[in-house]
């Protein structure tokens, strides 16, 4: 019996090593298979293999050693001064930008270098709270810059979804009560808050939403710092907050404002109280957790479901650590995760779903559909991933995820090592469960249920494993050398650059991603043109998907299919085209010709409007008929 216990102890103490070897083997097999089946998915297993090998190379390093590594006071202040100078230079480059509706490439480069320097400084930050606060201020300024400047560039709302949410909010404000008929009529928390901010400040929807959602998101990064500090140390928390702040999807959530991002703000606070409850769990904390649960459930269905899944695996992770913790088989921690809170959250969530749908069977129908296997969905996703862009551009677009989750592979392996702790293992297991959701959904009839949103929902919970991964990769210790310093700054700067220039985070500068950067915003000329054209015509309007956002008050038919197939005879109404569809990517269209030129030469159409940014054509044969 003692021999069996010793063998079990040995395997548990080396679980990270065996898991890393298993990931390498599985990654190699998956790479070979995907090389013949789907090269678009090939980078993922290759990244897993590379980062698993990196973990094995640095397996002996303990992240706790990073606390002993720090710069002198003089060197720390010098680096902070350099960082703030570079931040100011990035703002100057924006102010003196050569293009009115585009941030210059210099801006993105400066932000990337600043983030690399800040990461380097945090790794060797002296144990002093004032330096931590300076680092937090730097993170918030960087985050504010990446989220506010896209709003400053354009005269109105940025993004597609925000237009729908604005219409709903305006209806609430004008009528003084909630209205039916909108997708979020039963999930109105964000819209009510934005309406309240607008009433109190007198600001329009755009800037009211920035105050109501963007600013709180920046505050949530402070919460991520506190989570990392409670689990490990302040340095881990700061790195986690910084890397989450500059991740492409989280930048997008800050300026492309919709309920998913709003719900994730409260999710960060809930996670903090889950971590905190082991040290201090008062009645006030319990009430706060319940209020946060109610808020999350009433804001967004998918985020609420994600939190429920996370809570279950968070609880499982702590139970696993209790049963088989790295130092032996003895119980060293009395589990305090309230499974009653999980039950309460589930009751709140399903109860709200039943209320919204007015059908008691809705949750059971939802689960039943999820369990129905439909392998044909995999082919659909594969077809979607082969969008017509050069392969190097595709690699550039997915590189932020390869970096982020590559770092998290290293951090996740550390979670099962003997150097880990119960909160970190539970957090990592919950994050991995959410990250696995898109792949599990491929095996069901629910692959179309916003699969990509699970990926950036998981980023919140994987931010601390990512920070741990960065520390493990660079082996931060008292011993410093020039090569390591340059490597840290360079790698993190590259990581940040591919994030901030990614089409999710950047809709205005297409110099790097010219085949996939789409401008989901209007110029002044386009807005004036659209408002004018609405008054000119009350019949059916044909236009592209982005243009349709500003003309939602009238019947709209997407023009995409007609232009791609050159079926001009079926365009029996008012055709509005933005001139940029010839030179820029447009969602839903892949044109290799100039439709504006062809319609201008077509005798069936008369060009009735031309502002330079918008052209309008009227079918002369049957101008008022609907197809």
UniProtKB/TrEMBL annotation:
The chain crosses the membrane at residues 18-37, 43-63, 75-95, 107-126, 133-154, 210-228, 234-251, 287-316, 337-355, 398-417, 424-442, 454-474, 486-505. It comes from the Archaea. The keyword Disulfide bond does not apply. Keywords: Membrane, Transmembrane, Transmembrane helix. This is Uncharacterized protein. It comes from Candidatus Methanofastidiosum methylothiophilum.
């Amino acid at each position: 019996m003692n021999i069996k216990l010793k063998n079990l102890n040995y395997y548990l103490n080396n679980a990270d090593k065996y898991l890393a070897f298993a990931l390498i083997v599985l990654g190699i097999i998956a790479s070979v298979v995907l090389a013949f089946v789907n090269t678009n998915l090939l980078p993922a297993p290759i990244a897993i293999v590379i980062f698993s090998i990196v973990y094995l190379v640095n397996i002996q390093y303990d992240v706790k050693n990073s606390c002993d590594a720090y710069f002198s006071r003089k060197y720390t202040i010098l680096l902070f001064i350099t960082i703030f100078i570079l931040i100011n230079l990035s703002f100057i480059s924006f102010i003196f930008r050569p293009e009115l509706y585009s941030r210059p490439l210099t801006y993105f480069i400066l932000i990337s270098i600043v983030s690399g320097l800040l990461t380097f400084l945090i790794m060797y930050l002296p144990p002093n709270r004032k330096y931590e606060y300076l680092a937090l201020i730097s993170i918030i300024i960087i985050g504010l810059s990446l989220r506010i400047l896209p709003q400053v560039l354009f005269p109105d709302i940025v993004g597609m979804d925000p237009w729908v949410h604005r219409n709903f909010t305006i209806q609430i404000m004008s009528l003084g009560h909630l209205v039916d008929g909108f997708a979020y009529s039963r999930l109105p928390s964000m819209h009510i808050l934005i309406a309240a901010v607008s009433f109190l400040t007198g600001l329009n929807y755009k800037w009211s939403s920035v105050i109501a959602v963007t600013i709180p998101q920046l505050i949530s990064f402070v919460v991520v710092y506190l989570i990392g500090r409670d689990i490990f140390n302040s340095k881990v928390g700061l790195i986690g907050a910084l890397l989450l702040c500059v991740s492409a999807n989280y930048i997008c959530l800050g300026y492309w404002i919709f309920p998913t991002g709003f719900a994730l703000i409260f999710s960060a606070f809930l996670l903090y109280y889950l971590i905190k409850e082991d040290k201090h769990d008062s009645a006030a904390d319990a009430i706060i957790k319940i209020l946060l649960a109610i808020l999350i459930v009433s804001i967004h269905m998918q985020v609420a479901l994600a939190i429920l899944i996370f809570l279950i695996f968070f609880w499982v992770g702590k139970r696993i650590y209790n049963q088989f913790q790295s130092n032996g088989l003895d119980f060293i921690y009395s589990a305090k995760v309230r499974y009653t809170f999980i039950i309460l959250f589930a009751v709140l969530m399903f109860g709200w779903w039943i209320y919204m749908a007015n059908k008691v069977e809705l949750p059971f129908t939802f689960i039943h559909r999820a369990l129905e296997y439909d392998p044909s969905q995999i082919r659909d996703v594969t077809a979607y991933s082969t969008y017509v862009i050069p392969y190097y551009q595709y690699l550039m677009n997915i590189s932020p995820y390869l970096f982020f989750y590559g770092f998290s592979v290293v951090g996740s392996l550390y979670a099962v090592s003997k150097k880990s702790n119960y909160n970190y293992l539970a957090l990592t297991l919950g994050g991995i469960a959410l990250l696995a959701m898109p792949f599990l959904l491929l095996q069901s009839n629910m692959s179309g249920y916003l699969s990509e949103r699970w990926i950036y929902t998981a980023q919140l919970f994987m931010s601390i494993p990512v920070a741990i991964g960065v520390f493990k990769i660079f082996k931060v210790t008292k011993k410093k050398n020039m090569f390591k310093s340059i490597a840290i700054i360079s790698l993190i700067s590259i990581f940040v650059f591919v994030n901030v220039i990614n089409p999710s985070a950047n809709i205005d500068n297409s110099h790097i991603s010219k085949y996939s950067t789409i401008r989901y915003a209007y110029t002044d000329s386009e807005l004036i043109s659209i408002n004018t054209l609405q008054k000119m015509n009350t019949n059916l309007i044909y236009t592209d998907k982005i243009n349709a956002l500003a003309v939602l008050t009238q019947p709209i038919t997407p023009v995409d299919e007609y232009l791609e197939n050159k079926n001009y005879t079926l365009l029996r109404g008012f055709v509005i085209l933005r001139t940029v569809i010839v030179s820029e990517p447009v969602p839903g269209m892949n044109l290799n010709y100039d439709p504006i030129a062809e319609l201008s030469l077509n005798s069936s159409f008369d060009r009735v409007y031309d502002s330079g940014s918008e052209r309008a054509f009227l079918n002369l044969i049957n101008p008022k008929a609907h197809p």
